[in-house]
Amino acid sequence: MATEQIIKCFKVIEFLAKNKNSTVDQIYLETELSRSSIFRILSTLEKIDYVKRILAAEGDIWELDYKFLTISHSVLQYVDIREKVNVVLKSLSAEIKETVQLGIFHNNKVIYVDRIDSSDNLIKISFDNLGYEFEINSVAAGMVLAAYLSKKDLEDLLKNLNLKKYTKNTIVNKEEFKKFLVKVKDQGYAYNDQGYAIGVRGIAAPIFNFENKAVGAINITGHIISITDNRVDELIDKLKDASKEASRLMGFHNF
Questions:
Q1: pLDDT tens sequence across 18-46
Q2: Neighbours of 73 (CB within 10 A)
Q3: Is residue 98 within 8 Å of residue 61, measured between CB atoms?
Q4: Kindly report the CA angle at 88 between 72 and 217, in degrees rounded to 5?
Q5: 147 C-beta neighbours (distance < 10 Å), count
Q6: Which pLDDT belongs to residue 95?
Q7: Average pLDDT for the chain
Q8: Each residue of 140-149: pLDDT tens digit?
Q9: Which residues of 186-205 are buried (b: 16+ CB within 10 A; e: fewer)?
Q10: 161 φ, ψ (degrees, to nearest 5)
Q11: Which architecture does CATH list for 2-65?
Q12: Dihedrals φ, ψ of 105, to 5°?
């Protein structure tokens, strides 16, 4: 039953996407849904700002509202960055023989929308993190993206968050975390030494777009046996080169 209602809802949405300023009767003739179902769907979508009702003498006229533009913009941005940066992730992973991810902000957290595993690395990170939401203080990508927020956006973000502790190395004090982010921005990368899981290290650098905005982060994840203290500096240099190339592909030229 729930599946049928969702299908009906999307039939209405798809019709409005193709036909601006539509009446219930027009939607009815095209979709063959009942008028009562159409009106119920439209009324619900109106309450949550996904459609707009325009009062007219011949009857209510409906069209998609701007909230759909926000969603479509976000989706296009994610698709765009994945397509453009994937080649950089593959190249970096092949060169350093480590797992490389592409992280973005989503709902005040970080998700990895792309991941390249190195076939040469015998030590694998066991958790599958593609699409999983991470707290900003738990992974290097989150630290980098938080570091490049405006002061106000960062304050607003931290105000509504309780920084969760994962290991003894996780930074959970907000003032300490803000100081750490200043360092991250100054150096252009974040190094997370077992802050999410014991035995796992991460290094991340930002990806900028043509608006000089940090829209993503390249994240290297590996075991401490592989990402050793002696190797960190080398990985940081290669990561920075990769992030510059990814930024260039996203239209950033202010190097």
A1: 887 899 999 999 888 999 999 999 999 99
A2: 10
A3: no
A4: 55
A5: 25
A6: 94
A7: 89
A8: 999 999 999 9
A9: eebbbbbebbbbeebbbbbb
A10: -120, 145
A11: Orthogonal Bundle (1.10)
A12: -75, 140
Q: For the packed helices 140-147 and 174-187, what is the interaxial angle rounded to 10 degrees? A: 80
Give domain limits for the chain: 2-65, 76-249
Q: How much is the average pLDDT of 106-118?
A: 88
Is residue 59's pLDDT more than 70?
yes
User: How many Å separate Cα 18 from the centre of its chain?
Assistant: 28
Calpha distance 252→208 (Å, rounded): 6
pLDDT digits (tens, 9 = 90+) for 215-225: 999 999 999 99
For the chain, the three-class secondary structure string (H helix, E strand, C coil) is CHHHHHHHHHHHHHHHHHCCCECHHHHHHHHCCCHHHHHHHHHHHHHCCCEEEECCCCCCEEEECCHHHHHHHHHHHHHHHHHHHHHHHHHHHHHHCCEEEEEEEECCEEEEEEEECCCCCCCCCCCCCECCEECCCCCHHHHHHHHCCCHHHHHHHHHCCCCCCCCCCCCCCHHHHHHHHHHHHHHCCEEEECCCCCCEEEEEEEEECCCCCEEEEEEEEEECCCCCHHHHHHHHHHHHHHHHHHHHHCCCCCC
pLDDT at 133: 84
CA 220, chain centre distance (Å): 17
Q: Decide whether 2-65 matches 76-249 in CATH topology.
A: no
143/120 Cα distance (integer angstroms):
28
Q: What residues contact 82, with CB distance under 8 A and at least 6 apart?
A: 102, 113, 114
**CATH number for the segment(s) 76-249:** 3.30.450.40
For residue 177, give the amino acid letter.
F
pTM reported for the whole predicted model:
0.70
